[in-house]
Every structure is written in structure tokens, then in C-alpha cells.
TrEMBL record:
Cellular localization per UniProt: Cytoplasm
Catalytic activity: tRNA(His) + L-histidine + ATP = L-histidyl-tRNA(His) + AMP + diphosphate + H(+)
GO molecular function: histidine-tRNA ligase activity
InterPro entries per record: aa-tRNA-synth_II, aa-tRNA-synth_II/BPL/LPL, Anticodon-bd, Anticodon-bd_dom_sf, His-tRNA-ligase, HisRS-like_core, HisRS/HisZ, HisRS_anticodon
Boundaries of every Aminoacyl-transfer RNA synthetases class-II family profile domain copy: 8-329
Family indicated by similarity: Belongs to the class-II aminoacyl-tRNA synthetase family.
Assembly, per entry: Homodimer.
Keywords assigned by UniProt, alphabetized: Aminoacyl-tRNA synthetase, ATP-binding, Cytoplasm, Ligase, Nucleotide-binding, Protein biosynthesis
Source organism of the structure: Bombella pollinis
Enzyme class: ligase
The protein, known as: Histidine--tRNA ligase
CDD domains the record matches: HisRS-like_core, HisRS_anticodon
Catalytic activity, EC: 6.1.1.21
Amino acid sequence: MARLQPPRGTKDLLGEDMRRHQRVIDAGQTIFHRYGFRQWATPIFEDTAVFARSLGESSDVVSKEMYTFEDRGGESLTLRPEGTAGVARALVSNALTQVLPQKIFYTGPMFRYERPQKGRFRQFHQIGAELIGAESAFRDAEIIAMARDFLVSLGLGDDLTLELNTLGDKASRMAWREALVAYFRQHEERLSEESRARLALNPLRILDSKAEQDKALLADAPAFDDFLNEDSRHFWQELKAALAAFGVAFVENPRIVRGLDYYSHTVFEFVTDKLGAQGTVLAGGRYEGLVEEMGGPAVPCIGWAAGIERLAALIAPPAEEVSDVAILPMGDTALLKAASLARTLRDHGFSLAIETRGNMKKRMDRVVQSGASHVLFLGDDDLARDVVQLRHLATREQEEVPIGQLVEALERARNS
């Protein structure tokens, strides 16, 4: 029988990988709490229309990468390829559009059928945040500051650069879009095959094409700055002033775009050169039509998401968690007493392991290697006298402690 392996583009999270993964989530939860964000969890699969409507039928995700299937009832369902659409759907489904703003964060697995490569999987994990009801550029700056604080808390502040751009309001963006289409139509025969397909459906995506022949045309493409109206320029200046007030450094990058029509004004990416070609570790932007797409009112929002696998690859591995205490029972009767002691100590917040396998030397070797701070020896004589032998492994000091006073003795030792 062939040896079973995880499906292509997926991986098991074990040992150090799991500790890195959890450290990213824990850091995010700490920072989100400081900014007043609360966690939501949406299903990992939704009605296909949730993603087809929100991402657009012409997007690469919808046309090439979604895991879509028909269930036994004939419903078309899709494993979520990203988190924002589900959050917007949940807002409308739960009648929360009149209770704004909503400050939300989420974490969990996403699914895209694409070519696996370094830092990119078919089942991957994201951590993200959405501010629904973001009434001003100041709120955009605040959520970007939250992203910066999150990355700094992971120790990545020196390795990342914030790149920032504006897409302006809808009127500015549509004027620019028309100018881009006219420009690229003049040079259509020089575009890559993929960009020629995008020209009719999603022309802004040509700006982030990786094809060299497309890049050669971008230098002379119409600049968005020439199409910003006065309201959009004012929003852009407010955003930059607020970021400065929050102490967030950035560089302007006019090539950052979002191909979907509901994105507006602010778009940003935190990038690194530590992961090769896949340099973006966190990205986001302002959007104003997504809640409306889900059947709700027009609500301005801003959000971002980060790939946990990419962040985990950049951070230092956390130390492995170890038990505070190990119990070494000697004999069957002592083993049952060890179970009773373990319950008492765990109820008082101690992490604990009961070592039973092998002779005493082997058990002690495992305890020392585990990093436990204390070990309890429990033999027949100890049981008869209702005591345990408590050894502090760092100092090798050992004392006899009445079982009724064991919790207090361990708490003193833990606090000293």
C-alpha cells in the first residue's frame, strides 16, 4: 500500500511549525485587543455567489483558483479563498449594518488552487482585520498603524517597508481607467496574452503584471496622479498626515493597485526582501461597495490580511512549552495517588506530566530534558506518611512536603 502523504499544496503543522503559527496568532490577538477589535469566525465554505459577486467573475481567483463544488442538495459551495467577503456577508446576514462601526478580526484557513511555491500553499492561513464604517482617512491611518504594531510585535519592524498608494474616489479611478485602456489599446500587440485578456475585463491588473513585455510599457502609461480630483487629493493628504501622527513611516508606490471596482483611496502593502520573489507579507485597502454587493447599504470599510505561513517563516522560533511539574510514581498504588495529585495541581493552574515509562533513571533523564522546574517522587513509604518528595531541579534541593501543603509549596517555589 502506498504511503499516504498530505495533499499537494498543504502541510502538517507540527512542533516548531505549530509554535511559530500560534505565535503569529497570539501576537495578533494582543494587538487587536489594544485597538478595540473583536474576533469573528465565518464558515470555511460559503455560497459560491459570495465570492463570485465580491471578487468578480473576471478575477484570477474566481476564474482559476476557487475550490467550488456541488453538495448533495445541488447547492454550489466554495471553500473560502479569502476572509473579507465572508465578513461582509456575516455583517448583512446578522443585521449589523445599523450598528457601526464594527471592528473585526479573523484568523483561519483559506483555499486556492494555485501552483505551490515557497510561502504559498493551496490551503494556507490568514490573519486579518476589517473596520466596517471607516468614516475618514484618519481611520485608514489607524488600521495601518495597527498592522505596523502587529508586525513590530513579531520582531519584524526592521525587515519590512510600508508601501502606500491611493486609488482616489470612483470618479478619479474611472477617468484613469479609461486613459489606461486607451493607452494599452494602442500597444495591445505588445502585451502578454494574459494582459490582453485583462484589458477588457480588469485593466488595472496589468499594472502589477510580472511579464517583462508588460513592464516595458508601464513607464509611459498614464499616471494616476494626473487624474486625482480635489476631494481625492484632500483624502490622500489627510491620510499621510495621520500616518505621520501615528509614527508610521512609508514610501509611496504608484504601482500598488487593486483590480476590483469597490476599492477606493487607500491601498498598501508591507513588503520584505527576506522571502525571495514573494515579498508581500501583509496587504490591504479601503473599499466602499462590498457590503452593498452582499445586499446591505453602501458602507465605507478598510481592512488588511496577512499570510500566517509567510510571517511564521520570518520570525524566531518560540521556545517549546514545558510542564511545570513532573510526578514520578513508584508502584501501582502510587500511580493512582499520582492521578489524584495531578488533578489537584492542574485545577490550581500547574501544567503537569506523569512519568511512568522505563526505569527511574530513564524517567529522570526525560524530566530533565523536558525543562520541568520541579519533580515529585511518590513511593509506598511516602504514601503511608501522606507526603511527597519535592525536588527543585535547578538547585537540586529536595524537601519532604505534606500532601495537604503541596499546592502552597509549589506556588511559593514558582513565585520565588
